[in-house]
Structure formats: C-alpha cells, structure tokens
Amino acid sequence: MAERSFKPRVPTIQGEGIHMKVVQPLNTGGSYNNTQTAYQLSRFSGLGDNQTGTAASIAKVLGPIIDKALNQNTQTLGVWVRVWGPCVYQATQDCSGKGRVSNVADNVMYVAHNAQANCYFVGVAGTNGKVDPDHNWYDTDCLDNNVSTLVPFPSGITPTNSTSPGGPSAGNVSLGAAMGTTNLLNMQDPVTGHTLQWLLNAMKSTSATLIFAGHSLGGSLCPTLARWLFTGFNDLQAWKAVYVFPTAAPSTGDQGFVNGFSTVFPPTSITGVSPSGYWNQVIWNEYDVVPHGWTNLMNVQPYNPQNDVVWDYVKNTSIQTLYGPLTGLWGLDANLTYDAINAKYQLPPTPNPYVRLQAQMFTPSPLPPQPSTFSDFMNIVGAQHINAYDAHFGVPATVAPPRVDMVSPGPDVEARPENMRSTA
C-alpha cells in the first residue's frame, strides 16, 4: 500500500449543541412541497449556462428563459413572478490579476415572488456547466478551487454597491467564497439598477418569507450571502421568516463561520415535508464528491463513502473509491483517480480549517454503479452531483449537463500568485 500523507482536519460535528427548530410548511399553491420547490427554483438560475456574449446580453436572454420555466411549472411550483434580475457577473481578469474576459455567465442570481405565500426566493447559480475552457474558466479557478486562502467574515467581503450591515466577526471563509459573494452583492438589476440589498430592504415585511437557495457553487454562496446580509435577530425580525436552502455544497468556512451561520440561521425542520424537509442545512448526497470538499476528500477514518472519496491507494495497482475499486492496465485508472482527488486534497491550508455547515445526508436510490475506468468514475461523479439530486427531490432535469470542477484543475491555477495559494 502506498504511503499516505495525512493532513490534519478539523472534525465536522453536525448538530452538537444546536436545537432543531420546527416550522410549518409554506403553501405556494403547487403540488411540490417546500424543498422540491426551492430546489427546482434554484436550478432555474443555471438556465443560462449555454449562453455566450456580454453579461448584459446574457441577462437579457436569460430573463425570458426563466420566465418561461416559471410559467410552465405553475402546477407543481405555484405562481412565481420574477421581480429582480437575472443579474449576470462576468470576469474581466484571471486569478493572477491579468486581464482576461469571459464570455459566459460566471455568476447568476435572480429573485422571484409568490403572492399566495408572500414568499421571495433568491436563486444563486452554481458552476457554469458549459464546456469551454477558453472562456469558461472563472468559476473553476477563482471560486470553486480558490480555497488555499481564508479571509475574515464578514469584514473580508467589501462590495462597492452594497453597504455592510456590520456585526461581529463570524470566523473565516475561503477567498473563493468571498469573491463570489462580493460579485452577488455588487449585482444591479438590468432595468432598475437596484442591488439585492436594496430590493430586500424595500420588500421586507413581517408577513413575508425570504428564501436563499443554490446548488453546488450556488449552495456554497447562498449561506455566505444570507449571513452577510443578516447579522442577527434585529435584521431577521423585519421578516416573517428567512431561510437558506443549500444543496450539494462544499464547505465554505471554518468553525467560526459555521457557528456564526447557525446562530442566525438555526437548523430547522419543516413539518410533514419529505424528502429532506429542512431549512438552513446543507442537503447532500453521500456519493457526491463535491460536498466532501473541503473537509473529507480522503484520509478520514473509518474509510467509507460517507467519509472519503478514495482510500487504500496502491500506486500502479489499485484504489478504492466511494463507487468501488479501480485498477486498469498497470494501475493507470487507479493512478488517474488518485491524482485527481489528491490534487484537490492538497489545496486547503494545513491544518485544514474547513468545517461543514450543519447538514442532512441522503443515500441515493439506486446506488451508483461500479466504475471500470477513470472515465467511468468521472461520469458517475457528474451524475451523482446533479441527476441524483433531481431523482431525490423528484423533479425533472433542468439545466445543462453537469460539470464538476473539483476533480479537474483550471488552466491558470499554477499562475496564481503565492498569496492566493497559501493560507492568510
């Protein structure tokens, strides 16, 4: 067996010392329950993945696409009307600071309103699924994998278009999460020019509910966005309720951030809602690689799919993966798999500060197949990150084919300056 290089890891204790609130479900008028509705609405934020052009031109096309999706799903979702966005962020420089313009939607956010429940929904897009390494690189390089440096929360997030609500320090978050959250807070509606912060201040009401949701990258950004905007009870009391619904999210910050988030947004159970009837907790698939980042990609005992992506690696021979063993001619597939996961395992600083938010895990049905090649492994990774959630929530596929960048480094990772590759 090959020698392991162990990296200390902060334990991810879930639920300890935190009381689970219980709330009644919202009635949005559709056949879907609350979490099915939130999941499907969050996936609509990714409907612009295949669009190219400027940020403004993509937003102009994406608005009617989201409207069509909302209008075609009124029986299941209820009647939702887009009231802000979609707003699109597009990068103008790479992670080393060199000028480089993307031509895809790097970050997307929109807000819809359901009058029956008086509910506002904030949908945050995940990693753009378009396969175009020449133009679609920002999410991978600067957000998904930008975890070597952590910045203070919330003081390390300083948007120019939104005003910090202040509040005490709440730990630290990854530089990638800070950058992505800054992008969202700087967004301005293409028609009104208003930011999300302005909209929420204008729409707040003790009779209105607010939900933040996102999948994958969107699942990691919606908690930081919500927690930056809402610092405590005084902010929350202006609304009937404020919830966060992240799915398939990698870990965003350290124990201080987890504590700060859970204090403002305590884990909450929704009466009578199944599956995964929870607010303010990460919903994750046991066999999804992405939520294993950045706490338990490998070297967490006991070795099993819940704890590790790979283990028992013997160079040039074999490896055990969460989907089953891999070998290949002269161990080629085992080596490729180990190298892919180990590259991500090495990204966080040592000791590893990341801690998963309070979470609810599910086991997919059927279980994923056993791979016979590295290509099989990658295909299963994609299916478990997208398709398995669609099946779990019982909703139809919504967006472009999955793209999981945690296991494929971006083109300019090595070009990053030293201060973007080591701990602060």
UniProtKB/TrEMBL annotation:
Signal peptide residues on this chain, from the entry's feature table: none
Kindly name one Pfam family recorded for this protein: Lipase_3
Cite the Fungal lipase-type domain residue spans from the record: 194-266
InterPro entries noted in UniProt? AB_hydrolase_fold, Fungal_lipase-type
- The protein here is known as Fungal lipase-type domain-containing protein
Q: Which residue intervals make up region (Disordered)?
A: 404-424
Kindly state a single biological-process term from the GO annotations of this entry: lipid metabolic process
Per the UniProt record, the lineage of the source organism begins with: Bacteria, Pseudomonadati, Myxococcota, Myxococcia, Myxococcales
Q: Where is the composition biased (Basic and acidic residues)?
A: 413-424
Q: Which organism is it from?
A: Myxococcus stipitatus (strain DSM 14675 / JCM 12634 / Mx s8)
